[in-house]
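Chapter review: from sequence to fold.
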Amino acid sequence: MNVIVNIGSNLGNQRLNLSKAMAAIVNTYGDIEMSHAVESEPQGFESRHKFLNVCIMFATEQTPAEVHAALRGIERRISPASHRNPDGSYADRMIDIDIVAIDDMVIDTPELQVPHPRLAERAFFLKPLEEIAPGWRHPVSGLSATEMLAALPATDE
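The token string follows.
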């Protein structure tokens, strides 16, 4: 199966953080496809630190739960800090690895939602996704990344 992942960083040496995450993923899964980096404002919280994001795609025979666990492990090895503040709000982070999609699967468990539940709202997910998987379509809406991008308000660019 093909797994599409978005990797983001808004603290420290962002390019190095992304590179460490991608190297760990390559060491685990082999070859990857990678998008160009996209800069974005934080979503869901206030911060003066912009994110740098890339989208990657790799093939694996692991189950979605195994992939999710492996990616969480990579995140923790790079930075064990929580992605949330004590009050539950989002926090700045050195690395954030989100599964965006797995082929045409729909998964809705407390641990994993695929496609990512906010995929259609986030240009920083959609622009790189459009680059590395232009033929992929959302398994519920049927929309491509290009169509979802076109539906975003201009202010989200």
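Two observations follow directly from the output. The chain has four helices and seven strands. The longest strand covers residues 51-59.
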